[in-house]
């Protein structure tokens, strides 16, 4: 049974941006080896059970996590009808950049290297944000993502990138392969056999979390040995 949260570690934070504040859930374990910022996908939020599970696994491996709503409650109501804002990659990426900058100022995370974990359209936004903050973002993981939506930012991304796609999610596999060919950094495409877009099949989400944990331990941790010893 998947365990999605850790109330003893997490707390609600408010991240100021241009004329608005966005709510996030920050979890910082003792001696954190890095911090992973989550970019949720279409129609989802920081309460996504899938992202919360992955975040829990990462915290157990020694990483801090920040899950943030990229839209205000008012914007979410509009988007429920129009479904437009969830595909506004520039808007989502700008807000991710603001969250990255906030992490660089927050006392608990200012000294930590930053990784991005994007799901669905959040994968495209994460790559655009990584291209805009190459000095801060050291690793990117995309789960069932749309990296193709990053467009011309793809060749600019410097952070090592892991693309994870379900084996039965054939249209998204093709989109990830196209994006991979445009990228110039270290990039790996992992296909999980039998998994669909939401990774609801038994063992699929656990495989995602395991791959993400090892990727961040390799590329993100300020002490890779520290993170690896806690994750294996």
Fill in the keyword field for this structure.
7 helices, disordered C terminus, 232 residues, Rossmann fold, single chain, eight-stranded mixed beta sheet, alpha/beta, globular, 8 strands
Reading off the top of the CATH hierarchy, the class is best stated as Alpha Beta
Query: According to CATH, what is the topology?
Result: Rossmann fold
The portion of residues assigned to helices is 25-40%
> How are the strands of the largest sheet arranged?
1-2-4-3-5-6-7-8
Structure at a glance:
With 232 residues, the chain is an alpha/beta fold. The protein contains seven helices and eight strands, in the order E-E-E-H-E-H-H-E-H-E-E-H-E-H-H.
What does this structure look like?
- With 232 residues, the protein is an alpha/beta fold.
- It has a single domain, classed as Alpha/Beta hydrolase fold, catalytic domain (Rossmann fold, 3-Layer(aba) Sandwich), CATH 3.40.50.
- The chain is 38% helix and 22% strand.
- The chain contains 7 helices and 8 strands.
- The chain has helices at 49-60, 73-82, 89-105, 121-132, 170-182, 204-219, 224-231; strands spanning 10-17, 20-27, 35-39, 64-68, 114-119, 137-143, 161-166, 187-192.
- It has an 8-stranded mixed sheet, with helices on both faces.
- α4 links the parallel β5 and β6.
- The radius of gyration is 16 Å and the shape is globular.
- It starts with 9 loop residues before the first strand and ends with a helix.
């Amino acid at each position: 049974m998947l365990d999605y949260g850790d109330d003893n570690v997490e707390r609600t934070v408010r991240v100021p941006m241009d004329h608005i504040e966005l709510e996030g859930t920050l979890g910082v374990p003792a001696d954190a080896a890095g911090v992973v910022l989550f970019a949720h996908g279409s129609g989802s939020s920081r309460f996504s059970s899938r992202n919360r599970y992955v975040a829990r696994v990462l915290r157990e491996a020694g990483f801090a996590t920040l899950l943030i709503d990229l839209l205000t409650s008012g914007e979410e109501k509009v988007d429920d009808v129009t479904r437009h804002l969830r595909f506004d990659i520039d808007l989502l990426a700008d807000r991710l950049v603001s969250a990255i900058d906030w992490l660089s100022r927050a006392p608990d995370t200012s000294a930590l290297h930053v990784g991005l974990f994007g799901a669905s359209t959040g994968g495209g936004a994460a790559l655009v944000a990584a291209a805009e903050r190459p000095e801060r973002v050291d690793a990117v993981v995309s789960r069932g993502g749309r990296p193709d939506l990053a467009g011309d930012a793809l060749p600019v991304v410097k952070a090592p990138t892991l693309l994870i796609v379900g084996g039965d999610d054939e249209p998204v596999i093709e989109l990830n392969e196209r994006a991979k060919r445009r990228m110039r950094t270290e990039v790996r495409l992992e296909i999980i056999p039998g998994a669909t877009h939401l990774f609801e099949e038994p063992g699929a989400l656990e495989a995602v979390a395991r791959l993400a944990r090892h990727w961040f331990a390799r590329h993100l941790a300020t002490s890779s040995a520290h993170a690896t010893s806690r994750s294996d």
